[in-house]
């Protein structure tokens, strides 16, 4: 857009740690108000406010200079590089699915302890304009002699939901692996905790790490023509595609997967929590949420039915109100621990025991323009706390994600995070001590949950500090 002096306003990416300077949207005009107003009301409102809008816009520009636009979209991942790759795809005209695919490839490079080219996963895809039930693509148990699991799953998703060329989505990660990335504290901790120094050496936070073999593999994958890529997908290795199931929780629609997932059990737990009619999250409410969650784990024998592997979450929203939550992961840190000559770690497959990872989308049920959220979790305990934090507690994206969490372990004991801040209040810790004699302290690294949130046309996002990422907006 040209200003009064003939220069152009450049649309730039921003990060969640850099405050936004908002202004008007430079794009195809669509907003939540388009659905809230119609007919003569809309026409009258539009003409009645036109002069006012123009005047205010000119005054702002005169006072502040050229202004930034309201964010068109946002990507939240466990890595700033991956979040930025996702928003770059949005800037190139890609949709939320394209951005999620590109970010997932990036995460396979920079978080090999959590995910990789052989990782499993689920993607939830929702469009708030149509308000149809979200689509779920589950590629947890697909195998092929031609492509590793993650690549096969993302290829299927690209065929049915992508818009940009396949090469454009893979190439940025090939370049990142070639030129290197800064090792995160979480990756260094994972190497030590899993005794995986034979894979990548002894890593220190802040050092530069290159994956040349992985870069070459990604480059090869990027150069596969789309016709050839899609030919590898057949009835024997095709991901499972279903519609999400829906429930309500404190005036929010909750969308979760149904087939072979913890989704239905999560909804049972949320219904139990809702019966208490909490209006705020305090010590008493947290105790009841903990009690209810522990009871659900026992009643449904959750730990025996579901495997809690690693988890990495990509959350995306784009300009056209497409919302995506993708969760990927492996059997355990660094999968099977076997590094292939192609530069990625093989995973251990459990075909008869689904993983507890779960993508989630929340929308305020009484207001079209109300709050909408895309996020992911690993396990019923984490998911229940995240939903409660953001809905009952009405916390913003950052506070809802960063709030302290408890964990239900395989033997139905409860643990809390030893090092994450903020921590539970003393009353909660004493309550746990009364139950288990001494609270069990979970060491780092912790599995994160990332979120993109929209209210009206305002967009916010946050990458969980547990994962070490930073969200990116454009």
Automatic annotation (TrEMBL):
Protein name, entry field: Uncharacterized protein
Matches recorded under Gene3D superfamilies: 3.60.20.40
Single Gene Ontology BP annotation: glutathione catabolic process
PANTHER family with a match to the protein in the record: GAMMA GLUTAMYL TRANSPEPTIDASE, RE13973P
Source organism of the structure: Ceutorhynchus assimilis (cabbage seed weevil)
Source taxonomy: Eukaryota, Metazoa, Ecdysozoa, Arthropoda, Hexapoda
Classification via Pfam families: G_glu_transpept
GO molecular function per UniProt: glutathione hydrolase activity
Any one GO cellular component localisation term in the record: plasma membrane
InterPro entries reported for this sequence: GGT_peptidase, GGT_ssub_C, Ntn_hydrolases_N
